[in-house]
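To: structure desk
From: M.T.
Subject: fold request, one chain
Message: Could you run this one when you get a chance? Sequence is below, nothing fancy, just the single chain.
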Amino acid sequence: MAPIPAELCIAGRDLTEPRLTPGGELLGWVVAHAGEAAIELTSGAILGTATGVRAGRGLGGGAWCFTPDAQAVIYVGADGNVWRQPVTGGAAVPLTAHGPERAASGPQVAADGRWLVHVVDQAEVWALDMHTGAARRLDDGSADFCLDPWVAADGTVQWMAWNVPDMPWDHARVQWADLHSSATGAWPGAAGVQQPRQMPDGTRLAVRDDSGWLNVWLDDQPLLGAGGEPYEHAGPTWGPGQRSYAWSPDGGRVAFTRNERGFGRLCVVERTIGTVREVARGVHGQLSWEGERVAAVRSGARTPTEVVLYDTQTWERTVVAQGPAAGWGEHHLAEPLAVEVAAADGAVLHARLYAADEPDGRLIVWLHGGPTDQWQVAFMPRLAYWRSRGWSVLVPDHRGSTGHGRDYQQALRGQWGIVDVDDTVAVTEAAHRHGWGAPARTAIIGGSAGGFTALGALARRGGLYAAAVLLYPVTDLVDMVERSHRFERHYTDSLVGPLPAARAAYEQRSPVLHVDRLTATPLLILHGDLDAVVPLEQSQVLAERVNAAGGRAELHVYAGEGHGFRQPSNQLDEYARIGEFLARHVPIGSQP
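Reply: Done. Structure tokens follow.
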């Protein structure tokens, strides 16, 4: 079949955060394209265009909600303020004056329509009386971060909170405040907790990892009985608005997402008897259950991202909207092969192989970012693009990745730059033993934290790779602490250790300080000049030092881009530039 064109990969729209009105009659979702976002409704209305919508990313959200009477939407505008707009498309009215210096997220309206709660700057929880316009801060300031407030029927508001140097998946808690009094408190809970909510009957729900796996819990018991199940029911909290579970209007059933070693599934459990129904394969997220319908975002290796509706009587699925452009049906998309590899210390490592239909001997080892994250088997056009050109693509889940339980994810604490590098090397060597590639025909690609791990693998075993592509890579750990954005500024405290005590480890693991180990492999480095997560200077200094040491580093800077490339012209250039670079350094054929 013909190779997939890059234009197809970047075309289309991003779909996030579908929501049903109470009763389930109307459905809305956020559509983002070319840097702009709005809310589309099944009625045909498009809302939020006057101010723009501050859309969530991926399976996150926190951008909007319906009012309980279904007469309006409440959304966070691009200016950071909360707005109200009628579903008929009338004029939008601002409800807050936080922006543009500050940004709201997670708006939610109480069932009686009186109170609007939201978070400001991921640090403060506010309640707005919709009748009087009076605003009140609910949190006591004890948390460094707050996300995802939820108004219960009894007038209490609960939200997720944590303090640095922990990240939310290390240690978090649920705090609450009473809208009708000054009472505050915290739920007893686990080291890792997220998505706190409460049913009308008072049952508390959250995703917790007490059992070692992120499972949905009801009050103090796992949804699926003692011990839960050895699958994750949610992803890491990288931002607001994740909704990986939802309950039926009568509270008798709970729908939840399941991560089966990277492969996704939607499930439903009957609370009274504990029977689990496996509804559909595919990565699902942003669940909304109202009336007799469940809405979700659904995706898969062969399923372009779509908004779907399930009939909760038959569980038949209807596709409401598709994000990627039409034309994917003309190309063969394939499910990956789940791979397990034994590490030198006996640990079982996980990866997925996207084998080319017509392999030409070339292999890409592609590392996810984070590093606390995972690429589930969702629709990923860039992987399909390279498969269609003869490349097989191997996606390792080194330790520190999510989707394999708390112990696997926490194994990277203090070991970033060591364990992830060891695991990447082990998975690459196993791929070569299986004949999926050979050192002279293998490229390694990584972005952000994945670029850091890729550089570590090159320094450790450069002979395993013929070329490396680094997208906005972390190269200087001390600089990360000093200049990264607020959310990740303390991330290295847990991944490496606190400064100044761990300075020696920071220096030993920073690639920019050891460029003599990087001269054997040609590097292509791509970076945006507005990156607030990993400063551009990290890539500039790395390229300068590698070339001065006799290596080969090509750096290209994209103007106006941040941590990732959004402009279509730059995205097309990225595909072309990487292709030209790999063509020069990674041969096709069977020669070793």
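Reply (cont.): The first strand starts at residue 14 and ends at 20. Let me know if you need anything else for the meeting.
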